[in-house]
Structures are given as structure tokens and as C-alpha cells.
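Example 411.
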Amino acid sequence: MSSYSYAQIPADGGRILGDTGDRVVPDAPIVPFIEGDGTGPDIWAATRSVVDAAVRKAYGGVRRIAWMELYAGEKARKLTGDWLPQETLAALAEFRVAIKGPLTTPVGRGIRSLNVALRQALDLYSCIRPVRWIPGVPSPVREPEKVDLVIFRENTEDVYTGIEWGSKTPEAERVRDFLQGSMDASVRRGSGIGIKSISPFGTKRHVAAAILYALSRGRDSVTLVHKGNIMKHTEGAFRDWGYEVAAERFADSTVSEARLLEGEERRGRVIVKDRIADSMFQQVLLRPHEYSVLATPNLNGDYLSDACAAQVGGLGMAPGANVGDSVALFEATHGTAPKYAGMNRVNPGSLILSAAMMLDHLGWEEAARAVGRGVEGAVAARRVTYDLERQMRDATRVSTTGFGETIVEHM
Ligand code: NAP
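Predicted structure in complex with NAP:
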């Protein structure tokens, strides 16, 4: 039996076993949470109440979550002296499915970002962002209801690896000398230099996760988004390896768009297609209903997820998760909004909808749907937090807690 110095393992819960896509979930699973910094505690309190109410509503007391607090960020630093204690990583690996609020990025303390550190340490290789419009949420486009996308963004490769050297440093000059002397590649003097690397291993496991998601959720297509016309050996290879893994592992359940164009029938299979990244930005505005799951390398996915979220009303209501083979970490997509900390003011929607994704991941779809219904009901009733209220006509401004309570009323 494991034990931790700071975290308490609930005595009345059981461990989630199995890997992503194949979880074995007891009726009272132990689910770790990290409440987060700044407004994190405000939105976490509302989220926890909503999730507990949804589970009660769906399963009438037969199922419940045994919550277990883990420490990261400022709370961890105060308690343990460490921004990201080793035991938090160990517990996330042990308990497998967890949820977190936003964390402050420590400035100048050797950690690039706690979120990046968590993703790397736990090998959470896919960032998953569903983007769907909730009727009533103010949107800058005419037909936000046509957007129903799930973006799978690769988390560990591409420019995210942070392999770069600053302008005029001896390291950058050595790389430049090597490129010019041995590789016949010219780089301007004084350049900062970064390395973009994309591997078959990283691409195939990521695209496979996107295909498995599409298959398990009845989604009709997976689109590989890349800039392979220009960056042939990284982005172009991402596209090629994506098609390869579809053919190698999902030959019976997927079909390429090219084969459909040649006249082959779809026969219920998931269509695998690809689009060049710049055209994809047009497609999500002009013909969003033709797309379902998007699988992207890191940088394209970074831009695309926020651009798509803007189409349905912004990051305040955008859920997300970082998922690997074993561990899945669900999180708010916005930051800590520190100026509102402790004011019971900000929108808990992003974390609440991430919690709904988590319930769905556990196979507790009825509870996930109850959360979705509650959020839709609260927005339809126009009882919303300040960020939405200031953009909606005839809306009533409610607190973070008030929004959570309104969601529960509408489940
Ligand atoms: P931010 O915390 O996302 O806040 C920027 C603005 O977005 C806020 O001032 C507020 O706008 C709005 N906002 C954010 N969350 C909201 C919510 N729940 N409800 C309503 N409005 C919300 O971004 P930041 O100020 O750049 O970053 C602050 C800290 O968070 C930094 O330390 C950063 O590194 C960290 N961060 C963490 C994560 C993460 O943990 N995943 C992600 C991003 C940033 P108005 O002022 O217009 O009301």
C-alpha cells in the first residue's frame, strides 16, 4: 500500500485500474484533484459541487467520487517548499485519472511551466480540446452551432520540446557553424535557432489515440492537419505516418478520403483525411460541419484550438485534457486570473466541462450528460458569470458559486 507525506488517500475509495480506453472503474473511484492557484480554489469548489450532484443525480448514491487532494503550484510551495512535489507526480501515476485547476507559472525558477512539466513527466502526449457551442453563449460567428470539433494536439514534440539556443550565444554559433560547414545549410549570423523534430513513434501513438477516440464516440472523420507542403520531413511526415498508422492498426475501421474519391464505399468506417494548416483555418470558419476530430502536431494545434474556441465564445467555457497511455489529467484551459482570486467572480465553466469530459472518460456518460444539460440550462436561463453577462442581453450576473448552483438546478 503506497503512502504519501502530504496527500491523504481516502479510505472509502478504490483505485481506477486499466489504461486509457480500457479503464476499470470501481463505484467509488479515488480521483485526485489539484485545486490550482489564483482563482483555482473558487472554480474548483464550484466544479466539485457540480460533479458530486451530477453523479448523485445519475446513479442515486450507488456511485460517488472519493476525492483526494494533491499539491502543485503555490499551495505546494507553501506546504512542501516545492512547486511540483515528487509525490504529486507519483500519485497522479498511481491513481491515473485526475483533474486540476490552473497553475501559476513560476518566473525564473528553472521550471518552464508546471503544466509542461506535468505533461512531460507523465508522458501525457495528446492534448484533447472539444469545441462545441452552447446555445446562448455570445459568439463572433453567424453559425456557431455548426462547430462540433475535437482537437487532438500532440504534446511532446515539434517546437514544444524547447530545444533552442539564443541569438549570439556560443551554442547557437556552434550549431550555425555545423549547419553551414557540414550540412550545406545557410543560417544568418546572430540568429536564434530552434529545432523542430517530429518522430514516427510520437505521431503514430497520437494519431492512433485520435482514431480510437473517433471510433469510440461514433465520430465520422479524423483530419490530419499539417504544413507538409513546406516542411516535408516534419509536418509532411506527420501526415504520412498518420495515414500509415490508420492502415496498419485500423485497416477495417477506417478509410482514406482518397479511396472514397476513387469510388470506394464508406461502410460506416471513420474517414481519414488531411488538410494543410492554413487552409484548415479557413475550413473551420467556412465549413466547420465537414470536420469532426482534428489530429495536429503541436504548434498547429496550439493556434487552432484557441481559434476554434473563439468561434464558440472563447476560452472561458473551453474544456481540455492531457492524456497518455496510462494517465489522463483534465484541466481548465484558461490561466489563474489572479486579479479575481478569492472574489467568487470568475466563470467555472471551463473546469466544469473538463470534469464532464472526465466523467465520460470514466464511462460515466449519464453523469457527464447531466453536467452538460446543467450548463446548457444555466446559459439558456441567462444566469451567468460576469464574463458572459457583459456580452449578453438581459442576462443576470451570478457569482462562481451561483453559476454552479444554477447548473445543478438545471440538470
Ligand atoms: P488568464 O489567467 O487566463 O487570465 C486572462 C484573462 O482572461 C482574465 O483577466 C479574464 O479576463 C479572463 N479569464 C481567465 N479565466 C477566466 C474565468 N475563469 N472566467 C472569466 N474570465 C476569465 O491569463 P494570464 O493572466 O495570462 O495568466 C495568469 C497566470 O496563469 C500565469 O501565471 C500563467 O502562466 C498561468 N496560466 C496557467 C494555465 C494553466 O494552468 N493551464 C494556462 C494559462 C496561463 P478579464 O480581465 O477581461 O475579465
